Amino acid sequence: MKSSNIGGQAVLEGIMMRNGEKYAVAVRKPNQEIDVCVKSYKSIFPFKKLGKLPLVRGVIGFIDSLILGMKTLTYSASFYEEEELSAAQEKKEQILMGVITVFSIIAAVGIFMVVPYFVSSFFTNITSSRIVLTILEGMIRMGLFLLYIVFISKMKDIQRTFMYHGAEHKCINCIEQGLDLTVENVRKSSRQHKRCGTSFLFFVMIVSMIVCFFITAQSQWMRVGIRLAVMPLIAGISYEIIRLAGNHDSWLIQVLSRPGMWVQNLTTKEPDDSMIEVAIQAVEAVFDWKEYQRENFGLEEQEKEC
Question: What pLDDT digit, counting tens, does each position of 201-215 carry?
Fold first, then answer.
């Protein structure tokens, strides 16, 4: 299977697909028509060469994904607002969304990085082994992560979003298996993918456990500060693992990818045909899958021989 290098995310009643600097948002409007918006996105970091460096590109890509994700979510939500917003109201809403996003990131870092450390520190009376405490901290972090996913997956709106998430994966898998991008072929493709953001977050948990083992500062607050400071490094390493997984198919990669793909059973659901149709339009707006087939599967040559 050859990586197509396209990716995306589910939005409100739709899907965003990105290929390089070009992205498309396909949304199923309340009248059941599909709206497709195609635009270009340039990284907030002006130095392109810096964005190609290992580890650094992961951090930049993560920040860009957050910005683009917020932008496309806001766009998809605009189709379901009860009344038109004035320019001033729209500006205020964008500012509010920015504040909420920043706050959410800070809260997530606090909950998933700082809280597990302080909880695990209560067990110092039982054991002084740094290995045991680090593993315990990692297990608590993983447990919080899984509980969070299980909790939000019970929400009705999130369940539909997870169905669109499944449609996104199934479209990419369909393409990367050399199949024509049709509803029938997409429906029978897997809803799990090695380059998924869920797998990225899972690797963040695992990598953080390994990195935190080497934090040996004496001061408790210093250890917390270092944990926060190494978050970009953890994100960078996790991105490189996901990138490697997306471009290789060895047994080792399969083994490393399997736990993250198991977690995807929680964050993806089987979509209906109407959702698959939305996903297909999002893909075709930014990606020539027929050219991809000719380059990677030689389908054109096979047809000539027949």
Answer: 889 889 998 998 898
CA angle 145, 271, 8 (to 5 degrees): 60
Coil/strand/helix, residue 272:
coil
Q: pLDDT tens for residues 270-303?
A: 999 999 999 999 999 999 999 999 988 875 544 4
The 10 Å CB-count burial string (b at 16+, else e) for 184-220 is: ebbeebebbbbbbbbbbbbbbbbbbbebbeebeeeee
Q: Which residues pair with 27 in a beta bridge?
A: 14, 35
Give residue for tokens 């496309």: 72
CA–CA separation, 36 and 179 (whole Å) = 23
Closest CA to 206 of 264, 145, 253, 150: 145
Residue 76 host element (H or E):
helix 56-77
Rounded to whole angstroms, the Cα distance separating 9 from 68 reads 10
| Prediction pTM value | 0.85
